[in-house]
Design goal:
homodimer, 256 residues, mainly alpha, Farnesyl Diphosphate Synthase, 12 helices
Chain lengths: 256, 256
């Protein structure tokens, strides 16, 4: 079993060597720019670790893992646009639109999304692609609720904006590892809790969201509970989930 | 065999009754708005007619045909944005961003693209989805060349901006009708010529592109030649292609 850091290395190498569609011409440069820049690669690492725990090789899961990172990157590139969050900086360097202009920034997001589907459609069966499409649509719905301030509640917002893609990271791995649908439930429960854990810790680090609604101490308690339920879901799976446990601990304890 | 008008009716009914992903929440309204508005539905009608000529029922091809229209609509919604063409009007009514604001307009395009992949992934095999992803990436590359003024030549620009999706309209129909890859070449030659015909006639009607480069008379001659080659490709196919011939004549003679 590869460690999370080793899996992250696989993801970086794969993304760095990714052959983009030649017909993108010069647009490819902004797509690569958006994909670089030091993200933590949490979703693709989770996908690879789940795939390996479920009996596939991490290498088999790389196209699916990369597709998840491309969808995540697409959402960041469009969220940063002036009409949405108007962020000129992303991880300490100019956001994609700030570096390449708004027009190319919009097209970069579009290209990332289409490349993601190209990657996930490299598998013989359509299940992973279907799950990625559903997750992407949920994420877009969450972004709409956020931008328009029309979310019915915080939980719905987070489930869509963050949860969908975390759940898909586990779901895509299950399709790649050909885990029968009837056996997917505990894995998927794990994915759901992990997305929640990630979101609450994010809010604790940023001092917003759950911290504003519940206070810092209660947010910490909710994070620990989500981590506990994620661990309990793993305990119900008859497989070596040690690397996934490490990911739970890492997300629970993260400080950046 | 259904006529082009009957096929257009099928497309309109299908798009009008299309169940969008519930997780889109209020974003669905702008997606529906973008899909209405009286487009000619050339690409989905071409897809259905090709599918029927190749032995499938038009109904089987409806998800693929609708996916093509959603990708086309995605491209219009993003092209109309202030940072790209800055069009406030589309077919005589406010463009999507002008009606719903820029943020929701950007997300509407994103949602159209993701819904398109959801639709095309409803088939058991991934081939149609793969072809749609490639065509979309080509179209985005064409848009990049256009926006940045970096197209090597007009032909490359049109092949990407218009040709890719016309070619995919034929290609997706072939996958739906399960035409073996070895027998697809004449159909695909037809699709390529039809895309070129559409583009040249578009330029003749708008007085730009081919008309500027070649003059009106020469543009007309090039259009007639493309129509002739499209017809010749159909002549080489051992199937009832009468409706496709009608589409060629219609595109050649269109005045709007």
């Amino acid at each position: 079993m590869l460690t999370p850091d080793e899996l992250r290395g696989l993801v970086e190498d794969y993304l760095g060597g990714l052959a983009l569609t030649p017909e993108l011409h010069g647009q490819a440069e902004s797509v690569r720019y958006a994909l670089e820049g030091g993200g933590k690669r949490v979703r693709p690492v989770l996908c690879l670790a789940t795939a390996e725990a479920a009996g596939a090789s991490p290498e088999e899961a790389l196209p699916a893992a990369a597709a998840l990172e491309l969808v995540h990157s697409f959402s960041l590139v469009h969220d940063d646009l002036p009409a949405l969050d108007d962020d000129q900086l992303r991880r300490g360097r100019p956001s994609t639109w700030a570096a390449y202009g708004e027009a190319v920034g919009i097209l970069a997001g579009d290209a990332l999304l289409a490349e993601a589907f190209r990657l996930v459609l490299s598998y013989p069966a359509p299940h992973a692609g279907r799950e990625l499409a559903q997750a992407t649509l949920g994420m877009i719905g969450g972004q709409y609720l956020d931008v328009t301030g029309t979310a019915p509640d915080e939980e719905t917002l987070h489930r869509l904006k963050t949860g969908c893609l975390f759940a898909a990271a586990v779901g895509l791995a299950l399709w790649v590892a050909e885990v029968p649908e009837a056996e997917q439930a505990p894995w998927r429960a794990f994915g759901g809790e992990l997305g929640l854990l990630f979101q609450i810790v994010d809010d604790i680090l940023d001092g917003d969201g759950y911290v504003v609604t519940h206070g810092a101490a209660e947010a910490r308690r909710l994070a620990d509970e989500a981590a506990g339920r994620a661990q309990a879901a793993l305990d119900g799976i008859g497989a070596d989930t040690s690397v996934l446990e490490e990911i739970v601990s890492g997300l629970k304890a993260r400080t950046a």
